[in-house]
Amino acid sequence: MKNIEIRRWDNGEVIVCGKYESVKDCLEKNINANLRFADLRFANLSESNLSGSNLRESNLSGSDLSWSNLSGSNLSESNLSESNLSESNLSGSNLSESDLRGSDLRESNLSGSNLSESDLSWSDLRGSNLSGSNLRESNLSGSDLSWSNLSGSNLSGSNLSSIKYKEPLFLPDLYSIKILPKTTKLIYWKYLTNGKTPYQNATYEVGKIYRFDNCNSNESESCGEGGNIATLTWCLKDNLMANEFLQVEFQVKDIVAIPYATDGKFRVKKFKVLKQFTRKEVLKLLNNAMKKETK
Predict the structure, then answer these.
(1) pTM, rounded to two decimals
(2) Which of 8, 137, 174, 224 is geometrically suited to a Cys-Cys bond with 37, CB 3.0 to 4.6 A?
(3) Which fold has domain 1-165?
């Protein structure tokens, strides 16, 4: 037995404490407690029985919940990104507005669950049972749905883009923007992590114009100095956890290099930051754009 504490992820306040064999043992023995906001990141909860538990708005990112019973549980607005939920029982659970990006849901039972407005992008749903589940306005872009059972599911408003789609290595349409009139204004994207760019740790503010003096114009090099920007899909794929996306504007004459083998990223010498979006907001933008294209 050892002293186990479960704290809130937002303010560190203790929710449950006492002598238990493990975090799993602690949760199972406090199944009827209000465990909202629980910080359970990277916890080993494999084969646990958490049926009917209240884990709303909890952080379970990276946790191991394989073979667990979470049926009838409240996991709404929780962070389950990169978690292992393979062969778990989530039937009848509330997962609305939850973050399941990159999670392993292979052969899980999600029948009758509420997944409305949840983010299942890049999750693995092979062999899962989604019968009778509510997927209203959920995001499934990039997910592997092979062998999944979608009978009786509500897919109205769901984003099913890129399920079996791989962007080609060479994007001729992107390269061709260089032949547009020099003063044509274009809008592309950058993403941030904790307010900074992931590779140079640079910061940007909405409304400001940024200029780059030392720019690599060699289009044989995919990465180089300059104002690196990309398509929105590139930003979403490059970091599955990023939640800060900048919309930037520039003119064709500001393009320095679009690498020949670009996968969506290129360089400019100047851009203006127009607006900042969350991941949920940009996914809705993509979803709306696709709806317009199919009309």
Answers:
(1) 0.57
(2) 8
(3) Pectate Lyase C-like (2.160.20)
